[in-house]
Write a structure and sequence with these properties.
Shape: globular
Structural class: mainly alpha
Number of strands: 0
Number of domains: 2
């Protein structure tokens, strides 16, 4: 089972090896997370991150347009989650 620490370590190690984390690398992490839990849990976490990002942009940067985009993504991911 992957722990939160494992995830941070994987990403940190990748950044040390290469200045840019690749899509393939992220896909591998996401696959491991899905294997370790469930797609519903992963999408729920993604929704929470999107909502937090929207709140941060709105509160700290007064960037309502970007916040709206993040909220839309959270809403769309919630709809996907409801179909699983």
């Amino acid at each position: 089972m992957l722990t939160e620490h494992d995830g941070y370590k994987l990403i940190a190690d990748a950044k040390v090896l290469d200045s840019e984390v690749t899509v393939d690398f992220l896909a591998g992490i996401i696959e491991a997370l899905i294997d370790d839990s469930a797609a519903v849990q992963l999408i729920t976490a993604f929704v929470q991150v999107c909502e937090a990002k929207a709140d941060h942009l709105e509160a700290n940067w007064q960037d309502k347009q970007s916040a709206k985009s993040w909220r839309r993504l959270a809403r769309d991911m919630s709809k996907i989650n409801a179909t699983i």
